[in-house]
């Protein structure tokens, strides 16, 4: 069991996250931001393979449910999404937590890299789109994140458990 607090830098926010690891990994979070208040519950298998997400705006007017069988079959709000077939992980725009999913699941050795297609979820409009990304482990506590669709890249510092400490320009752990 672990608790984390992150401050959003680019978009002013404060996230409070609670993670429990057992037969499954379950994360529950509340994010207060310039975009409003959001909450989510995310469930992964023990090996950090994504399975289920419920994300909602605090007003209760907007919610999103995403599920995966862990092998490429995805549903969004109950509808099958063939465009997400290559995805294993999910990437939520409003939190650094979901960077931990591929970091923990892949357990790359220093110098190794992995190209992934993520189910990227934008908090602004709750859309889900495939997004090509690369993770390279540079050191024990340092990973390079690269968007393969743009020139965006950041070297992310993590703790020894793979949770983000600093995501330059975007998030910092308090």
Would you summarize the structure shown here?
The relative contact order is 0.16.
Question: What does the model show?
Answer:
With 174 residues, this protein is mainly beta. It has one domain (2-173). It has one helix and 15 strands, in the order βββββββββαββββββ. Strands 8-7-6-5-4-3-2-1-15-14-13-12-11-10-9 form a 15-stranded mixed beta sheet, covered by helices on one side. The longest helix is centred in the middle third of the chain and has 7 residues, at 100-106. It is globular. The chain starts with a strand and ends with a strand.
User: Main sheet: which strands, in order across?
Assistant: 8-7-6-5-4-3-2-1-15-14-13-12-11-10-9
Distance between the termini: 17 Å
Radius of gyration: 15 Å
* Proportion of residues in extended strands: over 45%
* Overall pLDDT metric: 95
Order of helices and strands: EEEEEEEEEHEEEEEE
Approximate shape: globular
Helical element count? 1
Q: Report low-confidence residues grouped into runs of 5 or more.
A: none
Question: What's the helical proportion of residues?
Answer: under 10%
Number of separate domains: 1
The major pleated sheet works out as: 15 strands, mixed
